[in-house]
Task: structure prediction
Amino acid sequence: MTHGYHKYPAKFIPPLAARLIEKYTQPDALVVDPFMGSGTTLVEAMLYGRRTVGVDINPIAWLITKAKTTPINPETLRLGLTNLYDALPVNSEGQLISPLLGKVPKLEHERIDYWFIEPNRSELEVVLFLIKQEPNQSVRYFMLCGFSNILKNCSRWLMRSSKPTVDKNKKIPPLVPTLKRQLKYMEKRNALFWGKMKGKAYSVVVHRGDARELPVLKNSIDLIVTSPPYVTSYEYADLHQLGNIILGFTTDLRELRKSFIGSIQAEENQADLLSPLAQETVQALETVDKSEGRGALTYFQSMQQCLQEMKNKLRPGGRTCIVIGNTALKKVPIPNAEIFVETGLAQGLQLEELIKREIPSKILPQTRDPKTGRFTSAAKAKALAYPEEYIIVLKK
Ligand SMILES: C[S@@+](CC[C@H](N)C(=O)[O-])C[C@H]1O[C@@H](n2cnc3c(N)ncnc32)[C@H](O)[C@@H]1O
Result:
């Protein structure tokens, strides 16, 4: 299916979302993911004939999910791709030979100059210019999604790093052949998705916005399936800076970070914490590190507001399924699962199920550096951050 269109940190495994959708909803139910990321829940909901709405604050998440939830007639797609490829001839080294080089609108940003070297730096401008000429919006989003996914690989970015780091020894692949490979892979996945969805009516809304303001009516959601961000873990704005800047979603990363829950720069909040365990955790962290304590407070306040919004928009009898792991920061345990359960109960939801599952080792997320407490590559870390995760099922 379209799940592999784009890399995304802490992605759901599709069968997990599928199982919850199948178990808890009937055809035509409304399934929502307030932190949709790369849109796993939405794609699975579509495959099961459910109506679906997804929200994410990250513009790149919006683009990826738009592309992944849009089955395109393979012939229409082929036509668009052929036009694009015809306009992108390359030499034997895979370098673009085009009269458009240097003649199209410039991409001006210090981050682009920092991450890209020639010839890819100039080729970016031509590729983006040509993709923007594609008249069919679905085909254009498809191409932009593929383009976004190869940016790290075609720059000095150290691959598999959970933080933006320069790889000094990288053999950077040529842009155009890498893009063509990516689009070819996606084209096959689109054909499969098209085949599955052909002739079926579907309803999908992909919204760029805040999980605290879900764009659906009160009492309307049958099922929420989501995995929220973690406290000061991935800086999604930084990890997706290449796509967000090059595709013109932002020029100011600092500003973008503020709206991300779990970011070090998340905007402060006023709500009183309903979960005693959340209060204790914040206090324990504050004694070790004041700023981490403040970060955790902002995080739990924001997540409490999200849970309240989810509850308001659920129909009576509807359910919220939250997939989350417990973790630790500066050696202070962060029992996310228990805290979310306590918060949900305090807001008047019932705990229907709490499932603990081991994360298969090959999809283990990054672990934390014992000194800084920040995420680090699995190879370096001594302890695993959250080798198991919980599925919390709360019912209204
Ligand atoms: C763990 S990821 C979700 C991954 C997703 N389940 C998937 O399969 O790709 C958490 C998401 O929360 C998003 N997020 C952070 N703050 C948000 C906010 N205030 N409102 C909505 N989404 C937010 C991040 O951009 C990120 O995509």
